[in-house]
Amino acid sequence: MKKAELRKIYKQKRQNLSSDEIRQLQESIYNQIYDLDITNINTIHIFLTLEKFQEIDTKPIIDYFRNQNKKIVVSKSNFTNNTLTHFYLEKDTQIELNKYGIPEPKNAKPVSETALDLVFVPLLISDIQNYRIGYGKGFYDRFLTNCRKDVKKIGLNFFKPISKIEDLNAFDIALDQVFYPKESN
Ligand SMILES: Nc1nc2c(c(=O)[nH]1)N(C=O)[C@@H](CNc1ccc(C(=O)N[C@@H](CCC(=O)O)C(=O)O)cc1)CN2
Ligand SMILES: Nc1ncnc2c1ncn2[C@@H]1O[C@H](COP(=O)(O)OP(=O)(O)OP(=O)(O)O)[C@@H](O)[C@H]1O
């Protein structure tokens, strides 16, 4: 199937999940994150939960890495050129919702993409080669090209990968891994 159709299907599938189902699916994803070897990881980029699209709650992930003394980085989205800029998320960093409902840091310290060791990537669906589809603006393809070659890219999703996204293009970047709930459909 092609991106546009897959986007529609998986957006709907996610909206159809109940909060109980989400709570259960999240647990399995969190456990895979807690099993990661993070010895050589210092700076971690993560997305802040976009609630209107029922994304995974990333707060427990942030708390976990904070407790491991890792640096956390989050982004602000520029919807005129579909690019992200990045900032440290510290204990006292203020967060506000932008007009799309995405939580963003206020007055925080900027970070270059090259400082990132690990990036958690939001997605609607991935394929078994770890290519992903998001909301369709290319934010993450643009972002990930600016990261170091050795950055670890891990997708998080409630649904298991499909066999193939048919209309991949030269901008699409494969992830290193995708975490999805065991025994999900
Ligand atoms: N938490 C989180 N942050 C993220 C992403 C993400 O997937 N999750 N993105 C991943 O790339 C980027 C944001 N991508 C987004 C793309 C569209 C819409 C959105 O609200 N779309 C409207 C139509 C908007 C319009 O074009 O006017 C909609 O679908 O109703 C929101 C976020 C950057 N930050
Ligand atoms: N590095 C890039 N430079 C220029 N254009 C790009 C780049 N990456 C992606 N694009 C363009 O952005 C548009 C959206 O890409 P795509 O459909 O892959 O989005 P997506 O990965 O689903 O969205 P997102 O990354 O925002 O979650 C496409 O027209 C694509 O060609």
TrEMBL record:
Summarize where ATP binds, as residue positions. Answer: K3, A4, E5, L6, R7, R132, I133, G134, Y135, G136, K137, G138, F139, Y140
Arranged from A to Z, the UniProt key words for this protein are: ATP-binding, Ligase, Magnesium, Metal-binding, Nucleotide-binding
Look up the EC number in the record and give it. Answer: 6.3.3.2
Known catalysed reaction(s)? (6S)-5-formyl-5,6,7,8-tetrahydrofolate + ATP = (6R)-5,10-methenyltetrahydrofolate + ADP + phosphate
A single GO molecular function term of this UniProt record = 5-formyltetrahydrofolate cyclo-ligase activity
Q: A Pfam family this protein belongs to?
A: 5-FTHF_cyc-lig
Origin organism lineage:
Bacteria, Pseudomonadati, Bacteroidota, Flavobacteriia, Flavobacteriales
Database matches in PANTHER family: 5-FORMYLTETRAHYDROFOLATE CYCLO-LIGASE, ATPASE INHIBITOR/5-FORMYLTETRAHYDROFOLATE CYCLO-LIGASE
Is Repeat one of the keywords?
no
Quick one: which residues bind substrate? L48, E55
Q: Does the keyword Ribonucleoprotein apply?
A: no
Biological processes per GO annotation: folic acid-containing compound biosynthetic process; tetrahydrofolate interconversion
Q: Which domain of life is it from?
A: Bacteria
> What is this protein called in UniProt?
5-formyltetrahydrofolate cyclo-ligase
Q: Which cofactor does it need?
A: Mg(2+)
InterPro entries noted in UniProt: FTHF_cligase, FTHF_cligase-like_sf, NagB/RpiA_transferase-like
| Family the entry assigns | Belongs to the 5-formyltetrahydrofolate cyclo-ligase family.
